[in-house]
Amino acid sequence: MIDLSHYLSDTGPLAQQIKGYAARPEQLEMAAAVSSALQASTTLVVEAGTGTGKTFAYLLPALLSGRSIIISTGTRHLQDQLFHRDLPVVRDALQIPVTVALLKGRANYLCDHRLTLALMEGRSRKKQLQDQLQSIRDWAGRTQSGDVAELVNIPEDSVVWPMVTSTPDNCLGAECGSFNQCYVMQARRKAMEAEVVVINHHLLFADMTLKEEGFGELLPKADAIIVDEAHQLPETATRFFGISLTSRQLTDFTRDCISEYVRETGQVSGLPDAAKQLETAVQEVRLAMGKSDQRAAWKMLAEQADLIKALAQLQKYLSLLTTELAAVASLSRGLEKCWKRGQQLAQRLLQTTVQPLENHVHWFETFRQSFRITLTPLDISTYFQERRQSLPDAWVFTSATLSVNGQFEHFNRKLGLTELSSLQLNSPFDYQKNALLYLPEEMPEPSSPAYSNAFLTVAQDVLRLSQGRAFLLFTSYRALHLAEKLLRRLSPYPLLVQGDAPRNELLLRFREQGNAVLLGTSSFWEGVDVRGEALSCVIIDKLPFASPGDPVIQARIDALREQGGNPFMDEQLPNAVINLKQGVGRLIRDVSDRGVLTICDPRLTSKRYGRIFLDSLPPMRQTRQLDDVAHFFTRTTA
């Protein structure tokens, strides 16, 4: 066994490499458990509270093990942080020649072929899109990796990215004229040669599926897999193992067909006309699905005459375009790929509207100009376990939020994990001294019409005492917008609202301004790290229970009830506890941080299950009195 205490001591290699490093017993305990799991090729589930230093606690034994390791994260941001910051620090501290690689999904890499097609169509583009394409063309001549994250001046959600990146459907493979310079292939070759590869959860599941279907693999053969942000894994698996048909898939298909046809023939009629008819049919389906922003069971729409007619037209024009493509598929690899995509989309249209799979939730979602029809598996544990058979036996699942009331049963059941060891490590931060939990008295029930005003009154009282410097976390956009309307009028502090700018830009402004108030929903409940006095207060409007009206949640509730289970205790409550723990984790991010956590939902004290929430949070002093909040901030200022 490796003597990890030497490496993680106050005088060890990491301490010499990292300014302000301090040894933590929790970090050493986790590192020892990870090392044992890697050496014995077993499964470990470990919850490491904020401040444990879990990243170094798994990187250190991973690099010392001498084994090939895949590290999977939930977000591209953490991927980049691991590869560009944390891995180099540990590798330099250990002074060992470990080869490492970063591998993302193909949508994260520039495709020269598709950039060429997009530039050819430039005349009809809006000026903003033309400017973005020009920026990408200029950058294409300089980049070594082709990783689109290098272009920080173009928003992540810009419509330009699907135009200049590839998908498995439209990639030309070895027949592409840019294949030898392909950034995706370059990244994969580096990954195949590396000893440690950093990926994301989506890529992990893509590799599992390819192996199962006999199409080879995306990832190198590894001795072990470490899954960080593991609490996200069940939801990512649910999305990945589902089947969806979207309006974007169809419209991207029509545009690719036109681009490839015009490029090969120079003709702008014939097949392009059929593609435009299909695009119109997609729009007609969207109109037939009714008002915007719906998310409901498919049966709510399935019998509507207008939608049945629109879907029949969609099938007709998809078939027509596919027939046109069959006649010209031999002209180029691009047109051949389009022909095959047409066949696949026709099958997916049939599957998602006429012949849904059993044991799947059949639902739809509409937005202002788009739609999605989805089949979601009720239970992904079998899918996950089947695909694990072709992967190594050594697995480490870690996150700051995996347990509910000290138990891992919920997480393990979701993924079908049985033979494993588990470890729960509390945060080394002194929550008793540095944090205060404020549960305001006399709050109405969250379902009451008076709740929103009562919450906003409490929030304003607390913000006055904290002098801004706060996150307000909401469980719905509606509640967020109500608060925004009031606070823009009454709050003396700078107000930052989710959606007004990219998340990273909002966080940068928040840190710089020092007394700002940031309003956010789900994406701000996790993965956000603001240290120091700029964030001294987190205010949460309600316990984050998922809406029981959501079609997937409702189907899971019904299935659990049919199996004799307790849907609330087995599904709804554990998910809400883990989500709350994520939100609470925004408050104390460093040993010197101090702050007040305000949770306004009275169910924490009025319902028996409230104790499960409270017992799952870090141990901190509690109060029902606003005066105690004032005293806390007075002492903090002093």
List the helices and strands and how they pair.
Elements: H1 4-7, H2 13-17, H3 25-40, E1 43-48, H4 54-64, E2 69-73, H5 76-94, E3 100-102, H6 112-120, H7 127-140, H8 161-164, H9 183-193, E4 196-200, H10 201-212, E5 224-227, H11 233-240, E6 243-246, H12 247-265, H13 271-288, E7 294-297, H14 305-328, H15 333-353, E8 360-366, E9 371-377, H16 381-388, E10 394-399, H17 409-415, E11 421-425, H18 431-434, E12 435-438, H19 451-466, E13 470-473, H20 477-490, E14 495-497, H21 503-513, E15 517-520, E16 537-540, H22 551-562, H23 567-584, E17 595-599, H24 603-606, H25 610-616, E18 621-623, H26 626-637
Parallel strand pairs: 1-10, 1-11, 2-4, 2-5, 3-4, 5-10, 12-17, 12-18, 13-15, 13-16, 14-15, 16-17
Antiparallel strand pairs: 6-9, 7-8, 8-9
Helix pairs in contact: 3-4, 4-5, 6-7, 10-11, 12-13, 12-15, 13-14, 14-15, 19-26, 22-23
Question: Top keywords for this entry?
Answer:
seven-stranded parallel beta sheet
Quick description:
The protein contains 26 helices and 18 strands. The protein has 638 residues and is an alpha/beta fold.
Written overview of the protein:
The structure is a single chain. With 638 residues, the protein is an alpha/beta fold. Helix content is 48%, strand content 13%. It is built from 26 helices and 18 strands. A 7-stranded parallel sheet has the order 3-4-2-5-10-1-11, with helices on both faces. The protein has a 7-stranded parallel sheet with strand order 14-15-13-16-17-12-18, sandwiched between helices. α6 (112-120) packs antiparallel against α7 and α10 (201-212) crosses α11 (233-240). The longest helix is centred in the middle third of the chain and has 24 residues, at 305-328. The radius of gyration is 26 Å and the shape is globular.
